[in-house]
Design goal:
single chain, 606 residues, 2 domains, eight-stranded mixed sheet, six-stranded mixed sheet, 21 helices, globular, ATP binding, ABC_transporter-like_CS
Length: 606
């Protein structure tokens, strides 16, 4: 191997055996990774970028794949080069975790639901590093502090389902860094994270890389993250490498049409400055003439006032309530027909709980939710079932919200069968029309969720949400796990549907650039409260609350010349939202800065 290369992939070919014959996941890919270097592999889902990393870990065999050709050369810790493609699984077990660490995209699938976080963190340390239990626990605590998890001592005793998505991902990152591997493969490690945490994790990985000389193979579809992290970029498309080069060159002077299209699809913060209404993106190859801003109406569809949701914390011998998590605290806003209100904030700020409380998927403690004249909170079970035709939800993780055992056409048909709105050939036509709407081929109707990429699964979730022609769709991080180009298409699709059908969106997201693109109004949440709310332009161009300003500062910019360093990101640690049972928080009071633009004056701890 050439001096100073940790891993080299040479002419890799990966094939999958399916019912319909052999599918080539990666056709012919070669690149290398040097110590202390970050190589970003970018491309859409289905381009083969994750397959090449799973091949390097030799995990591809467990997913039905087969390394059909090529060499995977790796320089070991003790020196000496091996070809991972021919190494036996026993030696691979030693190398995995110890010399090659991997951070997976979906933290819930990477963590074991029946073991505590502490047990999972210490397992690798004891297995690979031979540490005693006490030493491993001390190191685990130190790792959680490094990835900035609040109350790390308590988290060690908790199970994965008790943590928010962002926290679970930080645990996975801590696990991957535990044994100080020579090569770290990060497969979309920040897609499910908030901007501030993403900015910190990226800065953290950058710092660890510089301190330890670890080589990083960073797989992502987020070009802003690439601009922030990469030294070199490898662009993949349909199983092949189409372009490779230093990050500055790729951004300044992309050569391949696919790279150009990827860069064109990135929503950039500040792009909408000076415009009042959300406008679909002009994608490469799309017709620019039909890109019109979405006005919506002045008629209120959803009116939420003083919504409060708390979750009990139980403890003691009798499992009594000893404290409450103040998830949503005195939240009020209204949403007009045919418009989009976005709730933004970090994970744990209460934005998803607010969305679920409005649909009564979790029961709020108090407050009022009026949808199109109906008080949702006051409805009985039958009334609520009928009202659910008007309000649907698109969840963050499409894999968890789809049934793995049923064909996609059945899942899209399910709401219509439940409510008896369509049957027979009419139902089949509507399913086909919904597949067309979300731009999926009709041949997918007989597929199962695991046969689709993440972006395609999310389109199925959107098709299912649209099945009953709802008035309100709560989109909970609906595009956070999608590739840029797919994300741009899905966002444009959602906005076209809004223009056509007059549907209103409550758009829950942590991606400020996406929020700027789609919103009429924006509410910024922090610790369960809305700290700033108003028309999108007012909030983005004149942020008043210090937390909103910190959020804006954290957004990665798709420009490698404007990288952020760790010292730019001085976020305050988020205080705990858990308070004793008798704690009575103050009511939310707002000051109006300009028409409709309000800022919280009650102390929110920021």
């Amino acid at each position: 191997m050439l001096d100073n290369t940790i891993a080299r992939i040479e002419n890799l070919r990966v094939e999958f055996e399916t019912k319909n014959g052999t599918v080539v996941g990666v056709e012919d890919v070669s690149f290398d990774v040097k110590p202390g270097e970050t190589v970003c592999i970018v491309g859409e889902s289905g381009s083969g970028k994750s397959v090449s990393s799973l091949a390097l870990m030799r995990l591809i065999e467990f997913g039905g794949g087969d390394i059909a050709g090529g060499r995977l050369l790796f320089e070991r810790k003790e020196g000496g080069e091996i070809d991972l493609a021919t190494t036996d699984q026993d030696l691979m077990r030693t190398i995995r975790g110890n010399e090659i660490g991997m951070i997976f995209q979906e933290p819930m699938t990477a963590l074991n639901p029946v073991f505590t976080v502490g047990k999972q963190l210490t397992e690798g340390l004891r297995l690979h590093m031979g540490m005693s239990r006490d030493a491993a626990e001390a190191r685990a605590l130190d790792l959680l502090k490094q990835v900035r998890i609040p109350e790390p001592e308590r988290r060690l005793k908790q199970y994965p389902h008790e943590l928010s998505g962002g926290m679970r991902q930080r645990v996975v990152i801590a696990m991957a860094l535990a044994c100080e591997p020579r090569l770290l493969i990060a497969d979309e490690p920040t897609t499910a994270l908030d901007v501030t945490i993403q900015a910190e994790i990226l800065a953290l990985m950058d710092r660890l890389k510089r301190e330890t000389g670890t080589a990083v193979m960073f797989i992502t579809h987020d070009m802003a993250v690439v601009a922030q992290m990469a030294d070199r970029v490898v662009v993949m498309f349909r199983g092949n490498k189409v372009e490779e080069g230093p990050v500055e060159e790729i951004f300044a002077n992309p050569q391949h049409n696919y790279t150009k299209a990827l860069l064109a699809a990135v929503p950039k913060l500040g792009e909408m400055t000076g415009t009042d209404l959300p406008t679909p993106m002009r994608l490469l190859g799309s017709d620019a003439s039909n890109v019109k801003p979405i006005e919506g109406t002045d008629e209120v569809l959803l009116d939420v006032s003083h919504l409060t949701t708390r979750f009990p914390v139980k403890g003691g011998f009798f499992r009594r309530t000893i404290a409450n998590v103040h998830a949503v605290e005195d939240v009020s806003f209204s949403l007009n027909k045919g418009q989009t209100l976005s709730l933004v904030g970090e994970s744990g700020c209460g934005k998803s709980s607010a969305g679920r409380s409005i649909l009564r998927l979790v029961e709020p403690l108090s407050g009022q939710v009026v949808l199109d004249g109906k008080d949702i909170i006051a409805l009985d079970q039958k009334g609520l079932r009928d009202a659910r035709r008007d309000m649907q939800m698109i969840f963050q993780d499409p894999f968890a919200s789809l049934n793995p055992l049923r064909q996609l056409m059945d899942q899209v048909a399910e709401p219509m069968r439940n409510f008896g709105t369509h049957s027979g050939s009419e139902l089949e036509d509507r399913i086909a029309m919904l597949f067309d709407r979300v731009e999926l081929p009709r041949s997918f109707m007989r597929r199962y969720p695991h046969e689709l990429s993440g972006g395609q699964r999310q389109r199925i979730a959107i098709a299912r949400a649209l099945a009953l022609n709802p008035k309100l769709i709560v989109a909970d991080e609906a595009v956070s796990a999608l590739d840029v180009s797919v994300q741009a298409q899905v966002l444009n699709l959602m906005m076209e549907l809004q223009a056509e059908l007059g549907v209103s969106y409550l758009f829950i997201s942590h991606d400020m650039a996406v929020v700027e693109r789609v919103s009429h109004n924006v509410g910024v949440m922090y610790l369960g409260r809305i700290v700033e709310i108003g028309p999108r332009r007012a909030v983005f161009e004149n942020p008043q609350h210090p937390y909103t300003q910190a959020l804006m500062k954290a957004v990665p910019i798709a420009d490698p010349t404007r990288r952020k360093s760790e010292k730019d990101l001085n976020f305050k640690p988020i205080p705990s939202p858990i308070h004793p049972v008798d704690y009575e928080p103050a009511l939310s009071e707002y000051k109006e800065v300009s028409p409709g633009h309000k800022v919280l004056i009650t102390d929110s701890g920021y």
